[in-house]
Design goal:
single chain; five-stranded parallel β-sheet; alpha/beta; elongated; 544 residues; five-stranded mixed β-sheet; 58% helix
Length: 544
């Protein structure tokens, strides 16, 4: 400003005051972002140069010198469209000014026009542009520094959040593992007692009561599994556990479980089965049962009168005769599903308003499990008429089935089996003892209440097989197995060890196998499933 007064360019000097005030405002104000400040600065400076151009300049050099900084700045902040707009306005302004010769209104001392004034003005412009670029560079550097500091701060916050989420995830996994263990342990005892009573009671009425006990146990187990499965499916860590099973027997048992409940509601409860079912298939029996059981429960719950029908059928795959496409259809004449609910039926917590006890997870989990099995689920429904669900599971056909329970029991007939049972829960031990004695007439059982007791007994005695709980005081099953496998005795360090665990997480089950356990069964378990595993492991060591 002072330099312009010195050059006697008074009008241009006074015109710098608004620009100076604008830059002072930018220095103290935080209401504008850096790009906003840049655009306002470009606009103000362009107006100033245009004003000075009319007063003092009529040279192409002056035009280029005056306007190029504004254009460069817009390119730097990547406002390309705005740059084109400014460039267009500048070109039009210069052409109009020259064409109509507005320089005739030169109030800036016309006698100096394009003569003495030009050189000082040129130097002034060089100084101004240099200062402008320095300010721009400093502002840009400051802005970059602020951005870097902001990014560092946000990165630290992100790292802290990630650490907190990881901690929460570990706590969640730990909570679900503990809850699963604590719920499954008493369930195992209830199921075991039910199995024992069923093998000793002949009364049909008592057998029906025991079947209801089994149903209630399985239903409670399904609720526990639903919570665990939902968490695993969301975290993407869920895995299926495949085994051989009889389709017809498995699904008919689900029908029988629900029969009494349907009849008590006055419903007609039917099952229809085609003749082309293979005897044995390979798949996750428990998850298939869980899905079908959920749909049967829903059908009975939402049907006040009429019927519920379960149809079992399917066909062999056209391109693979060793694969059977199992189809299960659940039909009911219940309330039906309205259009609003139908659109979000497989979303979590979607449930009918009529349901007072649904957690809203069953169908979400079913859909997730079916997708994992590469199957399909669909439905048709009409309000006040009924609903039909269609399930399809691709299952490999087992040409050579596993041994029947009777055959497995025969394997133990002529063997005096020495078994070590290791569990800290006395109720579970009592139930397991009775289950084994009921099935195996010739066996000698020894009890240990923790891993350390078991290790000391193994050092002093010889056993054919060990059934080992995992979570125990003093020494857990994992550590005990590690010590057993490290024994110098080449016979004792190869004793088959089967884990009896209430933990169902893949990480925990892999830990059992990595420690040296031969296999595992999860609580609550069927005694016949345990016997099959025992038979296989004892045959591999030539005990039976």
């Amino acid at each position: 400003m002072l330099f312009l007064f010195y050059l006697k360019l008074d009008y241009a000097a006074w015109a710098t005051i608004p620009i100076i005030l604008l830059f002072i405002q930018f220095s103290f104000s935080k209401n504008f972002t850096f790009p906003q400040k840049s655009v306002l600065a470009v606009t103000a400076i362009t107006l100033f140069y245009s004003y000075s151009y009319i007063l003092y300049g009529k040279s192409l050099n002056y035009v280029i010198l005056a306007y190029w900084t504004a254009i460069i700045l817009l390119i730097v902040i990547r406002y390309i469209k705005l740059m084109y707009l400014f460039l267009g306005v500048i070109i039009v302004f210069v052409l109009v000014t020259n064409y109509y010769d507005f320089f005739g209104f030169d109030y800036g001392n016309k006698q100096n026009f394009e003569s003495d004034i030009y050189n000082p003005l040129f130097y002034f412009m060089v100084i101004m542009i240099s200062l402008y670029l320095i300010i721009l560079l400093v502002a840009r550097t400051t802005a970059v520094t602020l951005i870097i500091n902001d990014l560092k701060s946000k990165n630290n916050e992100l790292n802290e959040s990630r650490a907190e989420l990881k901690k929460l995830q570990i706590n969640k996994e730990s909570f679900f593992a503990i809850m699963s263990h604590e719920i499954r342990t008493p369930l195992n005892a209830i199921k075991g007692i039910s199995d024992i009573l069923k093998s000793n009671i002949q009364s049909e009425e008592d057998q029906n009561l025991l079947e209801l006990m089994d149903y209630s146990t399985n239903h409670l187990l399904a609720l526990v599994n639903n919570i665990l499965d939902f968490t695993k499916l969301n975290d993407g860590v869920f895995t299926l556990q495949y085994s051989e099973f009889n389709i017809q027997k498995s699904l008919h048992s689900l029908f029988k479980m629900n029969e009494r409940l349907a009849i008590e509601k006055g419903l007609v409860f039917k099952i229809e089965t085609t003749d082309n079912l293979p005897n044995f298939v390979y798949g996750d029996k428990n998850r298939i049962n869980q899905i079908v059981l959920n749909l049967l429960n829903n059908a009975i719950e939402y049907t006040k009168k009429g019927s519920v029908t379960m149809k079992i059928g399917g066909e062999y795959a056209a391109n693979n005769k060793n694969e059977y496409l199992l189809q299960v259809i659940i039909e009911d004449t219940g309330k039906g599903i309205d259009k609003t609910l139908a659109e979000k039926l497989f979303q979590k917590y979607a449930t009918s308003n009529a349901s007072k006890n649904s957690v809203g997870l069953g169908l979400t989990i079913s859909k997730g499990l079916i997708d994992l099995m590469k199957g399909k689920i669909s439905f048709e429904s009409e309000v006040k008429v009924g609903t039909t669900f269609y399930l399809t599971f691709p299952l490999p056909v087992v040409l050579k089935k596993e041994k029947d329970v009777e055959d497995v029991e025969k394997d133990f007939e002529n063997t005096n089996l020495k078994m070590l049972l290791v569990d800290d829960n006395k109720i579970n031990l009592l139930v397991l003892q009775k289950q084994i004695v009921n099935k195996l007439k010739k066996c000698e059982l020894t009890i240990a209440y923790n891993g350390l007791e078991a290790l000391n007994l193994i050092k002093e005695n010889q056993y054919d097989i060990i059934l080992m709980d995992v979570i125990m005081p003093v020494m857990d099953g994992i550590e005990a197995t590690t010590h057993i496998r490290a024994l110098t005795d080449s016979v004792k360090n190869k004793i088959p060890i089967i884990a009896l665990t209430a933990n169902v997480g893949e990480k925990e089950l892999n830990a059992c196998l990595n420690a040296g356990m031969n296999d595992f069964v999860t609580k609550p378990f069927e005694i016949n499933a345990l016997l099959k595993i025992m038979s296989r492991e004892l045959q591999s060591t030539n005990v039976i």
